[in-house]
Amino acid sequence: MTRTPDTPAATRTSGRPRRTHTPSLAHRLALPVLTAYLWITMTLFGAVVLETFMVYPNVFHDPPVSLERAMEFLAVSGPSDVFPPLGFATWVLGAASLVLCRRMPTVRWWVLLSLAMFVAEGVVSMLYFWPRNEIRFVEGTAVHSAEYLHQVADEFVTWHARSRMAFNTVAAVAAFAAFVQAYRRRLLLLEGAPGRRPRTPAARA
Fold this sequence. Notes:
By secondary structure, the protein is mainly alpha-helical. The chain has 5 helices and no strands. The chain is elongated, with a radius of gyration of 27 Å. The model is unreliable at 4-14 (pLDDT under 50).
């Protein structure tokens, strides 16, 4: 009668199949959707920065003359053709990221902060900036005096820097933080996946 060697306790099995955790569809989609949200967020943030420091100084330096010149230059395509679709995309991808990451607290709150900043920026734009765009570019000198248009332009530039730039900066930082946390979580899950060799410390010399 041959005796089988003892099996180490760590390798003994009870004969039942080992349960493995299968990530849900929402969990698998969370990082790709969050990556798309980060990409569109950074695209919008870069566009806002470019508009603030390159476009606006040319548009507002001498109203109403500069406003008329800007309208001629932006006759084919302008900010009103670019920012509404980008803003809507951030709302959709942000909401999708929030739903998919709802079970990840360290990710969820960053996504919520970023999305809240975009919603706040959209509301402020509709209530404050869009009416002033109509005053400057639609009604213009046919309705308002040059002094009033100059005043509206100054208000627009001032509050754009204080609100839109601030909202977009916080939104971009929060979206990046959410992506880092989600990617870190994915790496930790891969490290603990069944069949993956654990890391062993290097042998001492």
